[in-house]
Fold this protein.
Amino acid sequence: MVRRAFKFRAYPTRPQEARAVRLLADHCDLYNAALEERREAWRMRRASVSYGMQSAQLMNKAILDAGWAQFADILTGKAEEAGRRVVFVNPAGTSITCHICGRECARPQQDTVICPIHGTMDADLNGAGNIATRAGLGSGQASAV
Ligand SMILES: [Zn+2]
């Protein structure tokens, strides 16, 4: 395989330049984190973590992230075609927070949550209530986190 290098003079706008500076800083952080991981693996376990292993790990994450972003784009487009809108909410805690009072629930089984005040509820319906509230569509009984 022939490898060639090309150099181009770039004339970025101020916003492009700012993004390039952030991108470079992110790459520095990523490089340093990867180096730290390799050093730590060697120091703690005498294990070699290769560039290839770290690269594959990042690629898997990138594919998952890209898959999600693509799904969100398609969903948003379909919703707009149907005259609807999509509201993205932070899902953290929606399955174990009571949708009525906002208290933390116990979850003894996958399909059941128990609020200390409101008792046993269907976990899916409770989670849906929290998501609806966070999207601004709910009863307003539990506050958004
Ligand atoms: Zn409750």
The chain has a mean pLDDT of 88. The chain has three helices and three strands. The two ends are 53 Å apart (CA to CA).
